[in-house]
Write a structure and sequence with these properties.
By secondary structure, the protein is mainly α. It has one domain. Helix content is about 55%, strand content about 10%. The chain contains 4 helices and 2 strands, in the order H-H-H-H-E-E. The protein has a two-stranded antiparallel sheet with strand order 1-2. Helix 1 runs antiparallel to helix 4. It is globular, with a radius of gyration of 15 Å.
């Protein structure tokens, strides 16, 4: 999984309009709302400005891998009979 610094470096190399913290917040919000972020939406949010198609493609590919890793490590649980609509997030291995 990419570290904060690796993600920030990746975004910088792609000339993205956001930093790693903003990317993380946006993606986590999308996971909470949709279960998995819409690719077109997060790519638009990242707004990679580089003219180098390979760099942009690498950036998006690495973020997709990161998302897949995050999804695998988060278990969304909605208890039966919960009438409030509240969602609980259990993080596997959380200490």
């Amino acid at each position: 999984m990419l570290s904060y610094f690796e993600l920030n470096e990746l975004l910088t190399s792609a000339e993205a309009e956001i930093c790693a913290a903003e990317c993380h917040g946006f993606l986590c919000g999308q996971i909470c709302v949709y279960g998995y972020p819409y690719e077109e939406l997060w790519q638009e949010f990242i707004d990679a400005q580089t003219d180098d198609i390979e760099v942009r493609r690498d950036c998006y590919r690495e973020i997709t891998v990161l998302l897949d890793d995050i999804i695998k490590n988060i278990q969304l649980v909605i208890p039966r009979g919960l009438a409030t609509g509240t969602h609980y997030i259990n993080m596997k291995g959380w200490q």
